[in-house]
Write a structure and sequence with these properties.
It is a single chain. By secondary structure, the protein is an all-alpha fold. It contains 28 helices and four strands. Among the domains are: 134 residues, Serine Threonine Protein Phosphatase 5, Tetratricopeptide repeat (Alpha Horseshoe), CATH 1.25.40; 131 residues, no CATH class. A hairpin with a 4-residue loop joins strand 2 and strand 3. The longest helix has 21 residues. The protein is globular and about 75 Å long.
Length: 504
């Protein structure tokens, strides 16, 4: 449980009173190591509120090295790039068992981090935060993510955001305004979005200006105020993420002129590790400018977005539907939504053996027995879905790409970095088809053993994040990381937790 000064500072920060929180922390004399670490993390957060994210990262990393508490890991997770910060936030949630408000804060941080990774799970964490601690803040975060990933009626989101615009807390007003700008843009109401944005800009400080920049260019494009927005943003830009957002905004302003190309290229490079949704915007507009298709993983990120939100990220006409089967991990079968699990299992087996299957062997791999009548029914369903399957032997003739095939190819060529990038989780994790189970085990073990042998901290950390409860992987990651590495505190916390769970 945080001490009284820490709790007071947290409450002040929640109310937007950064200077008062700074005074409390400056006059605080910690009595033990955990208090000192948590005070340091909050001092970093005060710096972040003023736009100094570099100081935030430095202080939160030092705090988490001193003590891995839920508060220090929470701020470390927010301060780091999302892929590195995700584990810290997950461990903070495991460590914490306190007030609903604090648990909600952790779910909210996970929502923000997952949003920057372009993952729909962000919406679920925002909903949990709102459920556990109802407030204007959690409500608006949930509504904003509904605009990106959900199904809530846009008019309902708009009405709530308008109601909260006059809120006495500046942070709530800004979030309500950002939600309203986004909502207007989703409805094609550029003029209304521009008016809301112009009313909000005088309230923006260095810590919040970047949040409005990209949507601001979309809302103000063609208006003289847009140049003032870009000039003001250039004055606030401090780190690589700010610079990446500035390049993106300037590139979107110039798009579709050729002069946008170098700006979009730089934005894509700078934002790739910081904000994958904004990197999607840069990559999509760059691809449209060059007349190229949108590459993975950005094609998948675009498909994850709410239908009305896609035009804000991807120029019209660029999203071309193509046959690509994604079966690594859960909920990624959108191109083949008409197929049930059994049909997906059959499709995976046919793709895994392009030379074809004898009927009995295919039935055994699918059902665990020679159930040929059931196999013929399932083959009929594949053909009804537009896939060409020939018999004697059974083989798929429709050209089709699949993530698990790319993974197998990467493993065979020794490209472990690409393999870890592709591995989003087990192959069809709910499948009990013998052939799929065997292939799942083969792929996971080949990847796991290759990464363990390579002893590369980046590979180990990346795969451990996918296989969250694999103690051997996390221990190997800890052994290869320097204690000064930003990933070390969260990895140490994960290893300690898993060891304790294994001993129970």
């Amino acid at each position: 449980m945080p001490s009284k000064p820490i709790t007071l500072a947290l409450d002040l920060l929640h109310q937007g009173q950064e200077e008062e929180a700074r005074r409390v922390l400056s006059g605080f004399e910690p009595g033990y190591l955990e208090e000192e670490a948590e005070s340091l993390a909050l001092q970093g957060f005060v710096a972040a509120r003023r736009g100094d994210r570099d100081t935030y990262r430095t202080l939160t990393l030092e705090a988490a090295r001193q003590a891995q508490t839920s508060l220090t890991l929470y701020h470390l997770g927010l301060a780091l790039p999302p892929r590195k910060g995700l584990t810290a936030l997950q461990e903070a949630l495991h460590l914490f068992g306190g007030r609903p408000e604090a648990t909600a804060r952790l779910h909210l941080a996970l929502a923000v981090t997952l949003e920057r990774l372009g993952r729909q799970e962000a919406l679920a964490h925002a909903a949990l935060a709102r459920l556990q601690a109802p407030s204007p803040w959690t409500l608006l975060h949930h509504l904003r993510l509904e605009l990106l990933f959900g199904r809530m009626v846009l008019e309902e989101v708009e009405q709530t955001a308008v109601r909260l615009l006059p809120h006495p807390t500046r942070g709530v007003r800004l979030l309500a305004g950002h939600t309203l700008v986004l909502c207007h843009l989703l409805q094609g109401e550029q003029a209304q979005a521009g008016e809301v944005l112009l009313a909000l800009l005088p309230s923006c400080g260095p810590g919040s200006f970047a949040s409005f920049l990209v949507e601001g260019v979309m809302a103000l494009k063609g208006r003289p105020e847009m140049h003032l927005l870009l000039e003001s943003a250039a004055a606030w830009a401090k780190d690589s993420e700010d610079h990446g957002l500035l390049c993106l905004a300037e590139g979107l302003y110039l798009f579709p002129q050729a002069a946008a190309e170098p700006l979009l290229e730089e934005a894509a490079l700078l934002l790739a590790d910081q904000d994958e949704l904004q990197a999607l915007r840069a990559q999509a507009h760059l691809a449209a400018l060059l007349g190229q298709p949108l590459a993975e993983p950005y094609q998948t990120l675009a498909e994850e977005l709410r239908r009305e939100a896609r035009p804000l990220f991807v120029p019209s006409g660029l999203l071309v539907s193509r046959p690509y089967l994604q079966v690594l991990g859960e909920g990624r079968w959108k191109s083949f939504h008409a197929l049930r699990l059994r049909g997906l299992e059959l499709l995976v087996l046919l793709l895994a053996r392009p030379q074809g299957w004898p009927g009995t062997a295919l039935a055994q791999a699918l059902y665990g027995e020679a159930n040929l009548p059931a196999l013929r029914v399932e083959l009929h369903r594949l053909r009804a879905a537009g896939l060409e399957v020939r018999a004697r032997p059974y083989r798929l003739l429709t050209p089709l790409e699949a993530d698990f095939l790319e993974l197998r190819e990467a493993l065979e060529s020794g490209n472990l970095h690409r393999a870890v990038e592709l591995y989003q989780g087990p192959l069809l994790p709910r499948s009990q088809a013998p052939g799929v189970e065997a292939l799942r085990f083969e792929l996971e073990e080949a990847l796991r053993s290759g990464v363990l042998q390579a002893r590369d901290p980046g590979l180990l950390y990346g795969l451990a994040q996918r296989l969250e409860d694999d103690l051997e992987l996390w221990e190997a990651t800890l052994e290869t990381l320097s204690p000064h590495d930003a990933r070390y505190p969260a990895t140490l916390a994960r290893v300690r937790r898993l060891r304790a769970e294994y001993l129970d």
